[in-house]
Specification:
Phosphorylase Kinase, domain 1; 11 strands; 5-stranded antiparallel β-sheet; 31% helix; alpha+beta; Transferase(Phosphotransferase), domain 1
Length: 325
């Protein structure tokens, strides 16, 4: 708990600890800046795509380490999303997150995880990650633009995110930052998990995954206090808690652990997650939805359902009668 008291702000991407526990468990080393080119190459299975083939159309978003652009392939006219990470950054946290994300994107092949088409370095030193373009943005932007989600639409979102999480967890990958801003949507109602900068690949069944990374608002109780809420915590249950908060936020229209309009701070949030009751839905929701949320938002991690179990829940079988809106 001493670590918690040292933090003052909410909703910040927290720095990775310098301990070896948070370094990638895969074979790609963390090279010095001067040798980054050797480790960043096009994946031959994606086909040869270079930065010169791409034309920037518009900015889709900014992050701490770079910018995401909507781009056009000059020869094929295909549209992609290009994440450019600034090559001049010597921040070891940024570089560690970058190589982690690159390795996970290379490994994954799921219809509910954003697809990577190429990874390359530009002459400027910027590193480019070329991904599929999702034309409806994120769940966060949809919530702001179009308002709250109906239960059938939430069931559709939940089913697809759970399919993605089940794939990741089966392959020993923990996302650690599930939230509305990290789930992408396109106009034909496909939903895909994105942004693997603070994710982790578990190399051994005994690996712990209680590192203090991600967006604190969506962290599960055991991320703050593993002794009280962790049990045999391995990290997967934290993704389920974050999914529960995400779905409840989409239904209620505001962050569910605090009253609407309240400006959160670190202490308020930590107390709400660790000492408050799990957030509850208002009257009038279906029993299936209420039961599903209770399965996601158990404070003790070992009591939460897994992604595979949640895919059998009656709520996710609800067929959306209309498109996400």
């Amino acid at each position: 708990m001493a670590l918690i008291r040292q933090r003052r702000q909410l909703n910040l991407r927290l720095p990775l600890p310098e301990s070896s526990e948070c370094r990638p468990c895969f074979s790609v080393p963390l090279p010095p800046t001067a040798t980054v080119t050797a480790a960043v190459t096009n994946n031959s299975s994606f086909g040869a795509i270079s930065a010169a083939d791409l034309e920037k159309l518009q900015v889709l978003g900014h992050g701490n380490s770079g910018t995401v652009y909507k781009v056009n392939h000059k020869r094929t006219s295909d549209i992609y999303a290009l994440k450019l990470v600034h090559g001049h950054s010597n921040d070891p946290t940024v570089r560690r997150q970058l190589f982690r994300e690159m390795e996970i994107l290379r490994r994954t092949d799921s219809p509910n995880v954003v697809r990577c088409h190429a990874i390359f370095e530009k002459p400027s030193g910027d590193i480019g990650i070329l991904m599929e373009y999702m034309d409806s943005g994120t769940l966060e932007t949809m919530l702001k633009a179009q308002g709250t989600f109906s239960e059938p639409n939430l069931a559709h979102v939940a089913r697809q995110v759970l399919n993605g999480l089940n794939y990741l967890h089966t392959n020993k990958i923990i996302h650690r930052d599930i939230k509305p801003a990290n789930v992408l949507v396109n106009s034909n109602m496909e939903v895909k998990i994105a942004d693997f900068g603070v994710s982790k690949i578990l190399c051994l069944t005994s690996d712990a995954c209680n590192s203090y990374v991600g967006t604190c608002a969506y962290m599960s109780p055991e991320r703050f206090d593993p002794d009280t809420y962790g049990g045999d915590y391995n990290g997967y249950a934290g993704d389920i808690w974050s999914l529960g908060l995400t779905l409840m936020e989409l239904y209620m229209g505001h962050f569910p652990l605090l009253p609407p309009g309240q400006k959160p701070d670190w202490a308020t949030l930590m107390c709400a997650i660790c000492f408050g009751e799990p957030p509850s839905l208002p009257e009038g929701v279906s029993e299936e939805f209420r039961s599903f949320m209770e399965c996601c938002l158990q404070k003790e991690s070992e009591k939460r359902w897994t992604a595979a179990q949640l895919l059998t829940h009656p709520f996710v079988s609800i067929d959306p009668s209309i498109s996400i809106s």
